[in-house]
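Q: What residues go here?
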């Protein structure tokens, strides 16, 4: 059964090489308003930064 989520293959490669967003996860939900997704803000930016060459 296929999953409906997509994971960019670069994420897997980066993880295997030891590069993750783990340090930023402590900020998950910081500055989020009620009803706002906690994954937005610093954590979302960390993923974008991780994927930049």
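A:
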């Amino acid at each position: 059964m296929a999953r409906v989520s997509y994971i960019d293959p670069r994420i897997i490669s980066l993880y295997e090489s030891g590069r993750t967003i783990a340090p930023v996860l402590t900020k998950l939900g910081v500055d989020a308003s009620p009803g706002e997704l906690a994954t937005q803000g610093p954590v979302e930016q960390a993923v974008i930064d991780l994927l930049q060459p």
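A: Context that may help when evaluating the design: The CA atoms of residues 4 and 11 lie 17 Å apart. The chain has a mean pLDDT of 83.
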